[in-house]
Amino acid sequence: MDYIIDDTEILALAFYFTKDERYAAHAARLLKTWFLDPETRQNPNLNFGQGIPGINTGRGIGIIETRSLPRLIDAVMLLASSENWSKEDHKGLKKWFADYLTWLLDSPLGKDEADEHNNHGTYYDVQIMAYALFTDQPALAKKQIEVAKSRIQSQMKPDGSQPFELERTVSWGYTNMNLAGFFKIARLSENVKANLWNYETTDGKGLQKSLQWLIPYLKNEKVWEFKQIKEKEYDDTLWLLKMASKKYANTMYDALAKNICQKDCLTDVDILTF
Predict the structure, then answer these.
(1) HSE-up of 32 (CA within 13 Å, CB side)?
(2) Total-model pTM
(3) In 3-state terms, what secondary structure has residue 44?
(4) Nearest one of 194, 193, 207 to 156, comparing CA atoms
(5) Span between the terminal Cα atoms of the chain, in Å
(6) Smaller CB count within 10 Å for the chain: N or C?
(7) Which residues contact 45 (CB under 8 A, 6 or more apart)?
(8) Which own/partner contact pairs does 230-235 have at CB distance under 8 Å and 24+ positions apart?
(9) 154 in Cβ contact with 117 (< 8 Å)
(10) Half-sphere exposure (CA, 13 Å, Cβ side) for 265?
(11) 264: phi > 0 → left, psi -120 to 50 → alpha, else beta; which?
């Protein structure tokens, strides 16, 4: 699944910038195999997600495994002008995601994941919003924004820290990953003219404050005192900083990203995609 997402994204970007139909043709072939061809397509559910043999056949927390599918949707939109991706193909893909969205909302596993109070709940909201927008259900996307606001209230402290992520054994990774999920919700919210970038709860919790909480650690002004059993990774961190630089019109974030990543490991092309 990760390969289909990465490859479709790369091919769609290649087609978008070059107009070379070879890239679109192969992207369409991959998409049709995975989502449309009755002989090979995947079923629009995760009934067996993160199943444990001998204990259960699937778990609600397995739904986090499809958190990157919105990137594939973004990629598909870049294929709109291709002769290799027809209106019928597009309609079929929307039907697949509509069915998956229904499963996420109505199935016992989907409802279980919706009730999670950490990054699992955040990325459930990301998926609901992305699939709702793709399948022309803006009212559902707007409804999910209110759920996301309640998660900001429950998952963040007024100082910007995220206690449910900080208690993990890989606290740095989960803190950045969860905030990236909220940033993605904010991006999606723009499609229904909602502004989560500057939203704050009554006690001052918000996305920028949560990012600001990380800044002293990125500047080496503070030592990360929470459990981190793996070496720190910065992919989500760099994406957060580049996005914040644009959304908050503050070059400090961009400068900090460049300082962390001296070899230009994050380019503007990364910002084009979800």
Answers:
(1) 13
(2) 0.95
(3) coil
(4) 207
(5) 16
(6) N
(7) 100, 103, 107
(8) 230/170, 230/173, 232/172, 232/173, 233/172, 233/173, 234/176, 234/260, 234/261
(9) yes
(10) 13
(11) left
Q: What are 150's two structure tokens?
A: 């309640």
Selection from 39, 37, 60, 35 nearest residue 50 by Cα = 60
Residue 44: φ, ψ to 5°: -80, 60
**Degrees (nearest 5) of the Cα angle 55, 59, 60?**
160
Crossing angle of helices 235-247 and 171-189, rounded to 10°: 40
**pLDDT tens digit string along 41-90?**
999 999 999 999 999 999 999 999 999 999 999 999 999 999 999 999 99
In the numeric block, which tokens belong to residue 273?
């995609």
| Amino acid found at 63 | I
Distance CA 141, CA 211 (A): 24
Angle between helices 251-260 and 235-247 (to 10 degrees): 160
Q: Tell me if 120 sits within 8 A of 173, measured CB to CB.
A: no
* Residue indicated by tokens 């990953």: 177
Is-contact 82 15, C-beta < 8 A? yes
Name which of 70, 63, 172, 64 is nearest 108 in CA terms: 63
